[in-house]
Design a protein that fits this description.
There is one protein chain. This protein has 266 residues and is α/β, with parallel strands linked by helices. The protein folds into 2 domains: 68 residues, Ribosomal Protein L25, Chain P; 186 residues, Alpha/beta knot. It contains 9 helices and 12 strands. A hairpin with a 4-residue loop joins strand 3 and strand 4. Helix 2 runs parallel beside helix 4 and helix 2 packs parallel to helix 9. The protein is elongated.
Length: 266
């Protein structure tokens, strides 16, 4: 399967890859003229042939392509916005990578009440690194575009910005409904047209062409009562992933997989 890379734009019949991406393709993958790759500008995908490889030890790097033919690309039927509390950076960055592979379209890092203060102080310096992780993961998983990464916000501000039809707050509290109950065929959300009916079996029954979901995952130590109250005010539903207490990174990948299985229609 051909590798995919992102470019800033397509010209009439050409495109160029520059800087770090060009250096990676040229030096690590040993790109040569005549080789074929897939290129995406975030809206379209083209099969492209390398025309020129220009690498320099000190100057700019650039690889020029000739566009060969367009490749069909389809927008996903499920749009997921991930609101994730900042945790230890190695685990947080693993979450970013896997959330990208699982199709998250927007990611809001959260400065929750129980997030470690030193992590919040250092988070701003990691923003460009996090964007690079999203880009590389999106290329590896052959997405049309990488997720949008927002600046860190308080949960209250992030909840207020959510416009998704379905809003889920993962919770450890016993009174929280299971995610299975919220997404099941008997859920009241089905009657409201916010969830599809058995999407994996009968996609034609889905009355929503493009489902939108916001998923909020708390820090180690959990949400505070005030944060839960704020989420409820903004229309979030408390959902449980079961009796076991999961680490943040486990909860992210498990819940995103469930959402993709339950709600994706194509």
């Amino acid at each position: 399967m051909r590798r995919r890379f992102f470019v800033d734009r397509f010209e009439r019949d050409s495109a160029s890859l520059r800087d770090e991406a060009a250096e990676h393709l040229g030096r690590v993958l040993r790109a040569e003229p005549g080789q074929l790759y897939e290129l995406s500008d975030g809206d379209r995908v083209w099969l492209a042939r390398i025309e020129r490889v220009a690498l320099s030890k000190r100057g700019p790097n650039q690889i020029d392509f000739a566009l060969v033919e367009p490749i069909d690309s389809v927008e996903p039927t499920l749009r997921v916005t991930l609101l994730i509390s900042i945790v230890k950076f190695d685990r947080f960055e693993w979450c970013l990578e896997k959330a990208t592979e699982q199709g998250a379209e927007e990611i809001f890092p959260l400065a929750a009440a129980r997030t470690d203060r030193p992590l919040l102080a250092a988070a701003g310096k990691r923003h460009e690194r996090w964007k690079r992780i999203l880009l590389e993961s999106a290329q590896q998983s052959r997405r049309l575009r990488p997720p949008i990464l927002h600046a860190a916000l308080s949960p209250d501000k992030a909840f207020a910005q959510s416009t998704s039809a379905l809003k889920i707050l993962l919770s450890e509290r016993r009174e929280a409904l299971s995610l299975r109950e919220i997404l099941g065929k008997d859920s009241p959300l089905v009657a409201q047209g916010l969830l599809p009916v058995r999407p994996a079996i009968a996609a034609e029954a889905n009355s929503v062409a493009r489902s939108t979901v916001s998923l909020a995952v708390g820090p180690e130590g959990g949400w505070t009562d005030d944060e839960i109250a704020s989420a409820r005010t903004r229309g979030f539903l408390e959902a449980s992933l079961g009796e076991n207490i999961l680490r943040t990174e486990t909860a992210v990948i498990a819940s995103l997989a469930v959402l993709q299985f339950a709600l994706r229609t194509g």
